[in-house]
Queue: 3 jobs
Job 1
Amino acid sequence: MPNTLGNLKPTEFIRLPAEAIIGAAVLLSLPRRPRVIIAATAGAALGALTTLNFLDIGFNEYLGRHFNIVLDWELLDDAQSYMKDSMGGTTTVLLTIGLILLAVLLMVVVALATVRVANILARHKADASRGALIAGTVWITCTAFGLQIAGVPLAADHTAGIIKVHAHRAVDTLRDEAQFAKDARADTFGSTPPAQLVPDLRGKDVIFTFIESYGRTAIEDPDIAPGVTRTLDTSTAALAKAGFRAKSGWLTSATFGGNSWLGHSTTLSGLWIDNQQRYRTVMASDHLSLTKAFQKTGDWDTVGVMPGVQKSWPEQKYYGLDKLYNAFQLGYKGPKFSWSTMPDQYALEAFQRQVHGKKRDKPLMSEIILTSSHQPWAPIPKMVDWDDLGDGSLFKAIQQSGTKPADIISDSDRSKQEYGKSISYSVTSLTQWLERYGTDDTVLVFLGDHQPMSRVSGTKASRDVPISIVAKDPKMLDKIADWNWTDGLQPASKAPVWKMSSFRDRFLTAYGSTPSGKK
């Protein structure tokens, strides 16, 4: 069985597997009891490997990578939470039970089938031995001549290859853990005195905003781009009328399709965090995050607005946030929109009402995570009059009349349409908030955390996401003039592309920070 959806076709199942020929030869040479034990064990292992192949298919479709047997088991809880928000609790429980039973049943049935085949081989040992010899000869011949059907080699050793790949990946993961812990201890700005961190931003309200799933696909895919680029052009013009200018470029994200926290942490830590182990290592370290640099100076109040956080969030300490506003602390009384706990427009208005709009002795540094463009992109909120937002109750009618997740979750074309609408909504919410509440001292940095899943972005999509810096003070954009970014909110296709992990150091350097590496 292949481990990618694109290869799941009939020709894959007419191949002659070397493992079956070798297995038959081994079973024919054994007495009854060892034969039954080895057959049952091998069959159960084959059933488990088939389950692993299904996990590989799912991870490739949603996250653009294979399943990691060391790190990824805990992500299944997140998958279950996502299904619960998208399809309801009862459906999720039934599906979860069904999948667990299917995995167990697969191992048991394949084990029984393998024992049955082994016993048949033993009862017809002479014929089975000749058959194994002929099959082995055919396999060697097919390999020697490279014989194929519809581009698929007739001779296969796929099962052994999959086991080898997963074994190497597990070993590499364990080695990477040790090496990355050493890398995280080296920090270009780790020992920089507070007075020498971002001196050119003193007095400015700095806002770092991540837009969920805002990837290059939104701007360049011909089926999605027209609506999104129109929104970016309209928003650029509206911001210019309000006195704001913008520059935009590209970052290559450390994640794809999901695991947004890996994109957030990579951007803000300056380290390449592409798996859960690296994330845990960094969160437990004293490696300087970009947001914590502002807290370290003592010259900013630092807050996080996280409408997607619905439980304790110890990462607040690593990011240097004096105050955190989660899904339950923004006063929202309206309905959820699938996974998203509240519309972005409401979250931004709550930020204004509870944080940004209040008088303070210090400027403000904020980290905001916008969630309305999170898959499954149904239903999607609509913009309402800012003065009518209230406690969000008015969104109930919008949510009830919106598209249901079940209507698009397996439809690639409709998913693309709704994805594009969700990005337009999120960008519009953010830029209208800036027009309405931004000041001469506001500096907004906003970017995507990752590309949407491959069903929307395609199997060959890059991992690039747009990033923009917006400000009224022309000096703020003059500081990044040598970055050669595109004017406006829409980066040109040939605008510079950097690794997401490079942004922290580039930003700190551009705004006057002095490197003072901690080795």
Job 2
Amino acid sequence: MLREPTFGPVRQQRWKRLVTVTDPDDFFSQLDEAELVTGDDADSIQSSVEQTESAEHQESATTASESVTSTKSRRRTVSPRYVARCRFCRCKFKQHRIAVRHEGRCDAEPVSQCQYCGKSHTRTDDPEIHLKTCEAYERAETRLEDEDDSDATVTDETSEAANSEDDGHFSRQFIDTQPHEFKAYLKWDCSDRENPLRSYFGLRSLQGEHDFEKHGQLRTSIDIEGEELNVEFGFDECGIAPRDSPNFELDEVREYPIRVYPSAYSSWDDARSEARKRAYFLISPRWPDIESKEGYSTLSNPYDIEGYDVEVTGSYWDFEQYPHILQQALSALADRQGFRYSNPTLLHPEDFAPDQIHRSSNIIDGELHVRVKDGKTGRVISFDGTLHRISHLLSGDQEGYTKTVRDDRECPGHYYTTTIDSRRAGQLIADHELAKEFKHYHLRNPDAVEGTALENPKICVSFQNSIHDGTLYWDDLDQLVKELDEALLNVLEWSNIPAQPDDEFYVADDYFDVSGSRRWRKLLPDQLPRIESKQDDQLVATMNQMNSTDAELVDTLLTDGGKTSPKELAESIGVHLDTIYRALKRLSPLVDHTYGEVQLGSKYIAQELTGYIDTVTGSIQSGLENALDGLTRAESYADDDPWSRWLDRYGGKISRTDDADPDELDVGFKPSTIEEARRILREGALKWSQVTDEPIRNFGFEFAPAITTVDGEHYAPKHFADALGTPG
């Protein structure tokens, strides 16, 4: 007798239907209705698999009757060997469920087409690489440049028509994302010059000409794109020991900060406190065999450059502008030399030429953002919103620095962040390599900006150097801009916020304009459902092949949590280390095994396994292989509405009541904390609301939910509707 698994009532009924033994003689009545696969001319997988059930039964029936049928007769009655064939990759399928899973995920299926030459692209193709060799694209770009040069007096009406036409023929128009925070270390090697450190001595000479005690910081000004900016010069103590060289006659080495900020502000601190456009440069000398003073950390100069190391930070400038701002500021400071000394040591701004930046220069931080109207970002920050789902599906079980922050203390959605590492960045958007933080936030004191553009939240994507695999060099700046821009545009699209300029959704401020430009960016369908579906497929397929060691290994990971080693697993389960390695190979779709560490692949996988592992273990111990087969089929034919999936996922059981009281909702899944229990119930309320089209608060009137944590703490709120908010 089959042992019934412990999951939700809807899936429980499907299980009973699927594992019921059917009389093999009944299968012969289906043979006349079955249709053979026609071969390569089939229009799609879906059209090829409709008769799958009868085809599988035919094969079983033919096997059962082999002893009483002739060879010739058996050839007439046996079903086709394959039930479907993909018309893109030409793969053949023997089972209906595998064919259905393959549909829409085939790497050979064309998903786009070059609008210039008409060549088809698959999911793995990079359109930008194709454009580098596309002759039709080059001809179109050349024609556009010629038209722009020849038509210098186009009217506004003609220009708008031309732009509209270009949108259909050239790269797509997207909202212009605004650069925000930036930090880098830029280096210049001047060893080919007669005096490589001449500009450093020029800065030292400028320091000596100015009376800092009497006048404070040395100031001058520059003009950038019509905006007047203050340039502020000073000097700092540092930990660099004086150079042991006859050409270096200084007893004390200084570092020289240069600050650039709007002239409307009296100081750098005032401009920073009001989050204005600004740039900061700290110039430090470098030479081979450089040493630190006693008590200071060792300096790094891996390429033995003789020149300059400049720490760069700033806000609201395009990233590539910072070297130009530095050089312009140095030119303005050079003009201030000679006021006290008749023969000063001169600064040479050309030593900091933007096209001479050393290849070891690297980027630490970079961020792009948009400002969206308050109330339009619900799909970004909701309990089942984009930021939460990115963390839930892509972050490993207690892995490294994966972090999610949700802070609503100041206002709803005040500060939400989700961080993913380099590997998971590629899972979210193909070809991406940079670790990123996705952020939704309001200003620190929202009440202070009420009624202004700043009361609306920002949505940002930033580079996270602290968890990035490797170094992001200055030469990789284009990659940084492209990845941040693409990631932000995709998050907007997945959250039902248009990726094009739209005054209904976006709000302009002093630095962000609701404007767009044409550029090549990879805009994908929401990848999170695809990732969830893929993990579901891997979960069911792997569980169908588990043995007792596999089940114990998974149960140990679920019980202990976090990371462990293969050796510790072997000792805990009581098997040989080689057995653990073989189990890890079988469980590779669900378990991450790198550098001697083992952990479950994601929080989502851990959550799903928690609901199934008891059933799988019991089935293995009882030797009921058909039970797992039933589980596989139950998953293949599961209801697809979000509420049913939530009930099945968390083992939700509904007990109807006869009176006006809410129905009892008992959740079988055991969370680790009460806070997690609240989140699970709120997620269920959201799924119920999506299916019924009822206000989410009404969930609290329809059901009386109850859930118990792993520590035995019972959570059964009496007024759960109040926790869900007012009807909307």
Job 3
Amino acid sequence: MAMEAKEIFEALSKNVREMLSERGLGLYVPPYQRPYGWDKEKVSKLLDDILHGYGTLLTGEESFTFLGTVITIHDINFTTVQPIVRPEVPAKVLTVIDGQQRLTTLLCLCIALHNHIRLAHGKMLKGKTTDSMSSVEGWLDGQTLRLIDELASTFYEKQASGDSPRYPRMIRSFDDQWSRTLSNAKYQSPIAHLISSYTNTFDTAKPVEFKPQKRDGHIEGEEALVERYTQISKMLKAITNGGGKKEELEELPTLKQINDDKRFQRALLNHDFPEDVSQNIRDGAPSEFQGLLQLVLLSSYVLNRVAVTVVRGKNEDYAFTIFESLNTTGEPLTAFETFKPRVVSAEGLPNFEKSQSRQHISVISNYLSTFKVGEPLQAATRDLLIFFASAETGFKLSKRLADQRKYLKDEFERYEKVEEQRVSFIRHLQDTTTFKEHAWDISGRTPSLHGLPVDATTDAVKLCLAFLSNLNHSVTIAPLVRFYSIALCSNSTDQSAKIKEFEEALKAMTAFSALWRVSHRTTANIDREYRDILSGTNSPTGLPPLARALRKDAPDDSFAPAVDVIRLKAELRARLAHADHGTIADRDSFVAEASLLPAYLNAPQVARFILLAAYHDAVADTENPGLIKKGKPAVSPCLSYDGLKDDRHLALEHIAPKQLAQGWDALIYENKEIAHRIGNLVLVQNDANSSLSDRPWSQKRILYQALGAASHDAAERVLADAKSSGIEFAGSTQSIVELATHMPHLAAIGEKTDDWTAAFVEVRSKRILELAWDQLYSWLE
């Protein structure tokens, strides 16, 4: 059956009075909405826009001030209202999806206008009764009472019965509850408390200036709300007192200008000033009269000529979609922010504070709170949920906000009725968060396995996490989270074994990725390999899905998800070798493929890691000068976290320079990729890298010998021998050589006395790759 657009949403322009004063209307702020946070500049801009429009009435009677779009859903079944006294809810509840900040500010403006008009009204009349008023005072008294009544209806509605009959027009989920009885009425959110506090002043005999105060304790948004109300109140006080020297009131029309402009009067009052009122203004009316009249006229403008476009969606999904389409200034809520109230609802408000779900949600919230609201927060949330969806169901979640909201909603609905299942779902999201925060987002810090014993973060764990993170190989986060989460959730008896399995899985994935990347010209769809492993598809070994749960629409549910490091290693080996995947059948095919590729251009971080793997416990091959071979264990440990961070290994240097220079084999440059192959690369200290530069091979090999020397004396002898042969280095280069730490892998290169050629680059490439394969492939076995 065809559906028309109007059945999904409607959009109407409404002035403040129409928007806020509708009988039976309640505005409801859902819990995922951020606290009130407008600053002084934003409120000043809103007030300036209103005053500008007000002043423009002098030149055009069609002047209106439009304040943008408010997006709501009409919650006819009160499904979003929690807590609730169902028989006492306002007849029409609009849940505010966007526009809460503007509406809250408008409510503050209406309250402040109401308060200052009452104060100015009392000052003008000075206790006079209707019989004792002049005709001029009587006219303004009537206008004032009408405006007081209209303004009051914008921020509260009086019920017909009960000992708590005044309903704040806007309340917030969980913090507030509409009710006609004091025992059930609850108005604790900043805006509901402010409205309730102000309406309580009506019980006093004489109007008093309303000065809201911040309550004790940290109540999010209250400090900002009190400050902004005070800001508005000060402006209205200035208007009442004639404007003073306030720059922001420069556009405020004078009473003389208004008195001379009949169109202005009709636009706001629907009639001209009576003649005696006009004469009173011309004669210089008392300041109390003038101040009150200005407030009355401005209030009429705010109520009738300040407008918003109210968009009502059929439900939350449609409302959020509309918001993303229309939003140009506000910052949309993240998918996690709209997910949190679903968790609260599933736990039940009374139970949420002490629930396990709340503990998990708090961890996630605390992590995301470290990002600035706006694009940084959106990006952090997007990435987190993409990794979570991969770990949870093997699903490649898009970055679109609507898709991420829908994914969380749909997946959570599978579990929300059963406590153990929904807690496991949320716990998995927390584990993804914790892993990303402490093991992945390291930015100069040492990675750690937060929540596990300190000794779980072994040197191998730190090495592999730092390598994968520096490489930004984020597709590995989800499969790593599966093993990490299992270790976190295991009991004390099993935890040591599960921690070991995490380390084995981490090393296996590191080896797989490094060997894959260095033997392929591009990434060669390595991301798809990991996604297939998570979802259990296209498996050469029949590996079940690694993700925590099967998707709703999974085509084959014959496999139950399994976290098994032995089977994972077998799968990675098979994928590396299979003709439809990595095509690296064995050591020889790996060396043949990788030795011809420009490792430096493809992925410098991977090339650096391969060199570290080759250098690990390697010594100079005395029978083949310029090469290294495997030595005894611990003779030269390089493949470690310290080795990865070691200053000696930070710079990836070309032995033969990138471009042909004097003293080098021209054949190296006939193929532009040879200079970038792994056999022409070496790891050196940063300072040494700049010193080596593009020197000819005859000089460079001497510097390699000196840098690779085991002692400063040995380095000085190398330089002295070179000097006696007619090769002398500048003082700065000598200083670097003398201060450099021992780099034994450079000594092997320095032993090569004949030319550095294209043919030798090929030989060295193969030797390095053989050593790296032997070291890394063992992690897959």
